[in-house]
């Protein structure tokens, strides 16, 4: 049960408060007992059980005379209290006595029916003046009984007994209050924390600026919420500085990279020129990927109709020289002239470009790279390289993940592809290819007709 889970605030409050209440109650009872004992009330009480036994044994003979029958309880009473005496009187004025009634109490026989309850203690042994007065209901009516010389009970025993009789129900009441009232009070007091938790679950990298609500929560929790909000603010500031640095660095790299590429293209043809051009293109691609990651997070871009066939034709034309230089055959296969989707032409073009560049980078510089466009909005980029193991296919789309740790590249290209496709309500995955190699499939929703 959730109530008994470890570190439950409700459980701790209930048991701690219940322990505190019980400790206070016991301390008060003990202090009261000590006070009564120190008050020296003195004497002893007569046990009232004997009165009940006598009352139950009173009967009326057929001649109308009242008698006390020697029942088993009466005989047992006489065994334990052989000197017990009593006076019993009903409302009709009928009186019955038993035992040696002290001269002091004999006058009570005339007025006993006017009494209902009483008790007197004797402070001197053998306590033969200690008496009790009780009204007992019998089969022949109610009798008020004055009795003495019965079993004696000390004052301390009576005080302790009465204190326990009062303390047990009070403890039960406190337990019920702790088990029922405290969870309700705690739940209502901490209800604002549920709102804070729900807001915290909404915070992610794409929803920066969100803060936890600081109202309607206990003042004890507010410092922690304020500290978390402060930390979120510092994280947002750090993220913005990081983003600005990446954008500035990527922009600053574009000019020297372009100059380097121009100079390399003027070099004499050869293996070194080819290798350096590939390296320069890789660096240029990395700079563009860094900018792309910023572009796709910028709000306000509007979607329009994009022809995937024309888009892939442009990508193939732009990357054909690089692919041929790297030892590949790059081709576009489609039977369609128009496959229209809604989206950002520049972003989708960067996604296809990244997939082709990924094939150039990992295809082992041999075979064909094929771009396919289907009528249903499916776009594939396949190569004839070593392929991607099944266990790695879900991981390669994570940022900075590289299939081989020592390979070149930052591991941003495929992550960028997934981000772009997701923003277009599409899906990208690695699928099985009939021939060896990797095949990336992008599925995009078609634009509504008309």
UniProtKB/TrEMBL annotation:
Residues 248-448 form the Histidine kinase domain. One of its GO terms (cellular component) is plasma membrane. CDD domains: HATPase, HisKA. Keywords: Kinase, Membrane, Phosphoprotein, Transferase, Transmembrane, Transmembrane helix, Two-component regulatory system. It is found in: Membrane. It catalyses: ATP + protein L-histidine = ADP + protein N-phospho-L-histidine. The chain crosses the membrane at residues 12-37, 156-182. InterPro entries: HATPase_C_sf, HATPase_dom, His_kinase_dom, HisK_dim/P_dom, HisK_dim/P_sf, Sig_transdc_His_kin-like_C, TCS_sensor_his_kinase. Gene3D superfamilies: 1.10.287.130, Histidine kinase-like ATPase, C-terminal domain. Its EC number is 2.7.13.3. Its main location: membrane. The keyword Ligase does not apply. It is a multi-pass membrane protein. PROSITE patterns: HIS_KIN. GO terms for molecular function: phosphorelay sensor kinase activity. This is histidine kinase.
């Amino acid at each position: 049960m959730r109530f008994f889970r470890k570190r439950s605030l409700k459980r701790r409050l209930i048991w701690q408060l219940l322990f505190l209440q019980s400790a206070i109650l016991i301390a008060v009872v003990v202090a009261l007992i000590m006070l009564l004992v120190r008050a020296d009330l003195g004497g002893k009480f007569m046990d009232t059980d004997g009165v009940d036994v006598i009352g139950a044994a009173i009967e009326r003979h057929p001649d109308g005379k009242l008698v006390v029958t020697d029942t088993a309880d009466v005989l047992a009473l006489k065994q334990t209290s052989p000197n017990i005496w009593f006076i019993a009187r009903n409302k009709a004025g009928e009186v019955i006595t038993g035992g040696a009634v002290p001269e002091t109490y004999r006058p009570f026989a005339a007025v006993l029916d006017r009494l209902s309850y009483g008790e007197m203690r004797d402070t001197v042994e053998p306590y033969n003046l200690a008496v009790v007065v009780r009204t007992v209901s019998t089969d022949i009516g109610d009798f008020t009984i004055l009795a003495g010389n019965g079993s004696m009970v000390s004052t301390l025993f009576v005080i302790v007994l009465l204190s326990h009789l009062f303390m047990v129900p009070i403890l039960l009441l406190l337990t019920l209050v702790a088990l029922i009232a405290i969870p309700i009070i705690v739940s209502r007091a901490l209800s604002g924390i549920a709102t804070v938790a729900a807001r915290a679950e909404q915070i992610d990298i794409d929803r920066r600026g969100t803060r936890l609500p600081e109202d309607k929560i206990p003042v004890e929790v507010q410092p922690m919420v304020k500290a978390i909000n402060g930390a979120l603010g510092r994280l947002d500031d750090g993220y913005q500085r990081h983003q600005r640095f990446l954008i500035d660095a990527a922009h600053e790299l574009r000019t020297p990279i372009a100059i380097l590429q121009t100079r390399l293209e003027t070099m004499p043809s050869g293996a070194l020129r080819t290798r350096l051009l590939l390296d320069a293109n890789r660096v240029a691609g990395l700079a563009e990927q860094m900018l792309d990651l910023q572009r796709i997070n910028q709000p306000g871009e509007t979607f329009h109709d994009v022809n995937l066939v024309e888009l892939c034709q442009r990508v193939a034309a732009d990357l054909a020289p690089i692919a041929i230089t790297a030892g590949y055959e790059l081709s576009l296969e489609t039977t369609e002239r128009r496959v229209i989707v809604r989206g950002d032409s520049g972003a989708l073009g960067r996604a296809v470009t990244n997939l082709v560049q990924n094939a150039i980078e990992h295809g082992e510089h041999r075979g064909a790279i094929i771009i396919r466009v289907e009528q249903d909005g499916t776009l594939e980029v396949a190569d004839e390289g070593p392929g991607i193991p099944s266990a790695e296919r879900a991981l390669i789309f994570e940022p900075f993940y590289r299939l081989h740790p020592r390979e070149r590249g930052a591991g941003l290209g495929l992550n960028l592809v997934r981000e772009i496709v997701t923003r277009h309500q599409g899906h990208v995955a690695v699928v099985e290819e009939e021939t060896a190699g990797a095949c990336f499939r992008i599925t995009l929703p078609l634009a509504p007709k008309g």
